[in-house]
Amino acid sequence: MRMSKQTVLAIAEDEPTRETIRNGLSSRGFSVHLAATPVEGLTSFLEIKPDYVILSVTGESGAGLSELTDICEADPQARVIAVGGRGEDSFALDCIRHGASDYLGKPLVLKDLLHAIERMGSRSRLIRKSLEPDRDCVVSERKVLKFGNDIDSLPYIINQAVANAQVVCPDIPMLKMALGEVVLNAIEHGNLGIGMKEKSAAMEKDRYRDLLKKRLEDPRFASRTVTLQVSMTRDELRFVVTDCGNGFDYRAIARNGLKAPASSGMGLIVARSFFTRLSFRGRGNQVVLVYRRPSERV
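The structure assignment produced for this chain is given below.
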C-alpha cells in the first residue's frame, strides 16, 4: 500500500482519537493535519484539500452528520472515514448515505484505520469517470465474467459488469462499491483464504501486499478463479458471484445476525443495505445479489 506523503485531515474533539491518528499515520508517511472542532475542520478541509478526512461522529445525537454533508457537498469526491460508536450499524449506514466512504468504531484502532484507507483506495478506482454509451437501446443483457485474483484489475472488471446497469440503477458509484466489496471478499477470503485476523495483522505491519503476493504464488490458490454472472432486464439487475474457496457457515448469520466489526463487516453491511436481496448458496462460496428498479420494489 502506497502511503508516501498523502494528506490526512482528522476532525475530532477528543484528543485520544486525534493522537491515535497523528502518531499512527505520521509514522506511515502521511502528512497529518488536526482539527478539534467541525468549524475548524471544514475551514482546514477547504484550505488543505486532503486526500483523506477522518471525522468523529456521534450516533446518539447525530452530531457530525451535518459536517459530513458539508464536506461532501464541498467536494463530492472527498474520501471521508466516519468514526463513531461500535455496533451502531444503522448509524453507520446513515453516515455512508451522507457521503462517508467507510465507518470505524471507537476506540479507534490503527490497523482498522489502515484497512479502511486501503479499501478506500480500491473504491476510488471503481468510480473513475468514463465515456458513457447510449443505453436506450438495451432491453436485456446476460454475460459471464471469469477472472483471477489480481485485485488491481478489479476496477476494470466491475466496470465491465455494470456497463449498462444505469438502465436499472440510478446510483452507479454505490452499485460499484457494493458489488466491488462482494467480489473483493470472494478473492481475498474465498479464493486466497485470507482471514480477517490475518489481513489485519498484515495491514498493521504494512505487509498486506506481501501477503497477497505470497498467496498468489502459492500453487494451492494460484489457479482459483471467480465467476461473475450478470443478468439484466429493464427492471432488475442480478449478479451471482462464485469463488473456488471453502465457503463458510452463512446460516450462522441468519441465526445470529451480522455482528462483525465495522472494519471487517462494513462491506457486507453496505451490500445488504444497497441490494434488494442478498443471499448465499452452496457451501457459502456463492453470493446472489439482486437489485430492482426503485419503482419496482415492494
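Interim note for the steering committee: The two ends are 43 Å apart (CA to CA). The domain at 141-296 is CATH 3.30.565.10 (Heat Shock Protein 90).
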